[in-house]
């Protein structure tokens, strides 16, 4: 019956799996404009800068919304699919001249991805010594 929506949740994890270009390449290919190296993908152009840090974590989160009608007058249903990707990097750098460009190994300005609805880069700098 096509009117029944089956919801399934799948969860997977790779414990102690090192992040390397073998794992990063498929993850990057899911980013909008990854081939043009726009947006967030442009920050990951030199992955060795990220893999040299104290901690790395990559996540994918897929969320498919319920089928719903486009409007009350229409019969067609739309399935909404959202993909969220998170890359977490922890560094214990004690340099006073820390910069965004040095952290990612990038000096050129970042161009926004024309395909992405939104992108965020969150940087938390702790000035307290360990």
UniProtKB/TrEMBL annotation:
Annotated Gene Ontology cellular component terms: GPI-anchor transamidase complex
UniProt xrefs under InterPro entries: PIG-T (IPR007245)
Biological processes, Gene Ontology terms: attachment of GPI anchor to protein
Highest rank taxon of the organism: Eukaryota
Alphabetical list of Pfam families matching this protein: Gpi16 (PF04113)
PANTHER family: GPI TRANSAMIDASE COMPONENT PIG-T (PTHR12959:SF11), GPI TRANSAMIDASE COMPONENT PIG-T-RELATED (PTHR12959)
Protein name: Uncharacterized protein
